[in-house]
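User: Show me sequence and structure for the first protein, then do the same for the second.

Assistant: Starting with the first protein.
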Amino acid sequence: MAENTEKHTHVMEDGTVVEHSHSHGHTHTHQNTRAVLNRLSRAIGHLESIKRMVESGRDCSEVLVQLSAVKSAINNTGKVILQDHIEHCIVDAVQCGDMEALEELNKAIDRFM
C-alpha cells in the first residue's frame, strides 16, 4: 500500500481554524459516498428554503421546526459517515497498526457529539 498524507483544515463553530494531517496506508473510498452526497444536497436545499422562510418573515415556530429537521438530517448523515469510517478506514488502520487513526477518530467523535 502506498503511504497517503492528507492535510485537512476545519473551521469550528467558534471560528477557530484547526489544521491536521492524516498519514495512513489506505484511501478514503466508501460505499455510501453517493448516499452521503445526496443527503447533504437535500439538507442544503432544505436550509436554503428555511433561509427564504426567514427572509419572508415566516412564523418563528415554523422556522424552528424546519431547523430541527435539518439538524436531524445532518446528524443522521454524520452517523452514516462514522459507520463507513469505522467499517473501512479504522479496520484498515488497525490492521496496519495505525494508532493515530484511532486517536483522530476519538477526537472527531467528541467534536461531532
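Switching to the second protein now.
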Amino acid sequence: MSQIDIKKFNRTVGRKKKGLAKFLRAFGKSEKKGILKIAKQAETETWKEIQCLDCGNCCKTMTPTYTRKDINRIAKHLNMTYQEYFDKYLEKRRDGDITNRSTPCQFLGKDNKCSIYAVRPEDCAGFPHFYRRDIRYQAAEKTYTNNMLYCPATLIFVEKLEKAIGEDL
C-alpha cells in the first residue's frame, strides 16, 4: 500500500467517472444473482490495495449526516450539551439533514486522523458503504457514483465490481 496522491486520484476519476457511472446505472437495475458475494470480494480486494485511514479525503471534502444519537454521543464525549455541540459545529440543511457547518471536518487532524474516531458519527463509521444488502439501491441512487468522486477506495471498489461483473449486466 502506498500513500494516496489526491491530485493523481482526481485526474483518474475525472477520466473514468462517466464510464463507471454508466456501469453503476446498469448495475442498479441488474437482476444478476450473487451480487453480494461479488461485492464482498471486491471490498476485500479493495482494502488490500488502500488504507482508508491514510487518506482523509472524505473528511476534507465531504460532511457526514448526523443523527440525534450521534450528536448526543459526541457531545457527551466532548463534555458538551447537545445544544452546545450543535451550535458550535452543525447546521440543519433545507432537506432536514444535519451536517457539519464546514469542511474539512473540525475533528480531522494534520495527520489525517479523526480526533473523535471512537465516537464518530455512524455515517462516518459506515463510509464508504460498500457491502450492503441494498447495494443495487445504493448504485441506483448514485451513492457510489458520488462517493467515488471523493474517495479513492470507492473508485477502486467500483472498478473491481465492473471487472468482476463485466458485460454480464
